[in-house]
Every structure is written in C-alpha cells, then in structure tokens.
Amino acid sequence: MAGRQRRTATGWTVAGLSFSQRELRDLLVAWLALGLAFTFFLEREFRRIVFLQFGGLSAGEILSTFAVSLLTVGVGFLLHELAHKVVAVRFGQIAAFQADYRMLGFAVLGGLAGFLFAAPGAVVHRGRLTAKQHGLIAVAGPVTNLALAVVFLVPFIAALLLSTSGFLWEVARMGLQINLLLAGFNMLPFGPLDGRTVREWSTPVFLAVAVPSILLGVGALFVL
Fold first, then answer.
1. φ, ψ at 126 (rounded to 5°)
2. What does the pLDDT look like over 189-218, one tens digit per residue?
C-alpha cells in the first residue's frame, strides 16, 4: 500500500494519480453536497422539517436516505469525473477535478424546492490532444457509469429474487438507476456533454455507446 498511496507537501499521490489539497477538498464537498441535495429531493418530509414544518420523519430515516445518496448518486458522479482524469493523465495531461460551488449550492437549494439539476463540477485538463484522445477522455465517464450499473445490478437482482427490502435494496435500486441515467444523459450529443465530444471524434463509437446508454437511461427513469 505504501507504494500506491503517498502523502506529499501539496496533497496525495494514489496509484500514480496526484491530488492536490484543493482537489481533495472539492471532491469531498461535491460528494457531500450531492448527497444532501438528493436527500432533500427524495425526502419531502425532510424539506418540511427544514422549513420548520415538523412531520413524522425520524432522524434514522434522514440518515439512511443521506447514506443511500452518498453511496449511489455521489459515487456515480465522482467516479464519472475521476474516470475522465485517469484517461487524461494517461495521455500526459495535467488534470484535476474542480467543483462548481455555485452549481452545488443551486443543487442543494433545488433539492429543497423539490426539483434537482446537478452539475457538481468537471475535470479540467491542459495539454495538446488529438480528437481521438479527447473522445476517449469523454467516453470514459459514461462507460464508468455503465460499469457501476452492472455492479449495482447484481445485488438488485438478488434482492428481487429474495423479495427483500430495506437499506441494501435502496442502495442497489438507486445505484442502478442513477448510473444508467448518468450514462444516458452524458452521451447526448449536445452542448458540453460527453456525447458531443465522442460524436465529433467517431460516429461508430458514439452510436455504440450512446444508443444503449440512452435507451437504458430512459428505461431506468420509468421502470426502476
């Protein structure tokens, strides 16, 4: 472990990836803010408590929803961004995640209001790249979400077969749903989304990833 994780004067080096103290702070704040935003969004009673309209929601229920959000939404968003960083560094880039504190604040306030739009930040990198390298960096995020969806699919199927419910069921269901939604949404070929960069590099690769991602994302939205 000592060779894979090392503290430096300015941050940490983990498995060959360097993280500054600012980047680690941004990752932590984004993770916690997303967890809080989705907790507000998912728990209507929690929103009432914040506005001093006390209901019957227990502290245990609030903490459970917060934990589920951290383990699913937060992990899905941040591993998506870290996948961009890993591939960018492989191509010799200087890359770091930068949180968008204004958008994180907007996400938390939106969750309180009962709607949600989350854009926690992005991996910023600099250096000269080919169109293929740009495309590979972009597609790494959605592909990571698809891989995470497979990870959550196993306990989801097990819970269905065993007819179980509770915390683990919610983690599996929400983890599967949110990662399919993230993959599908980010593969849309518009604006700053990953799909546009991938399409500009390679239409066949774009279609191979975007079509199943978008279809699965729509399915997750209406079925799960």
1. -135, 150
2. 998 899 999 999 999 999 999 999 999 999
Which residues, 6+ apart, have CB-to-CB distance to 129 below 8 Å? Answer: 91, 93, 137
Domain boundaries, the chain: 15-128, 129-224
Q: What is the pLDDT of residues 172-188, one digit of tens each?
A: 999 999 999 999 999 99
As a whole number of angstroms, the distance between CA 79 and CA 214 comes to: 19
CA 198 vs CA 21, 115, 142, 143: distances in Å: 31, 29, 11, 12
Whether the CA torsion 92, 82, 184, 164 is positive or negative: it is positive
Is 81 marked active-site? yes
SS3 3: coil
Task: Read off the pTM.
Answer: 0.86
Active-site position among 23, 43, 81, 170: 81
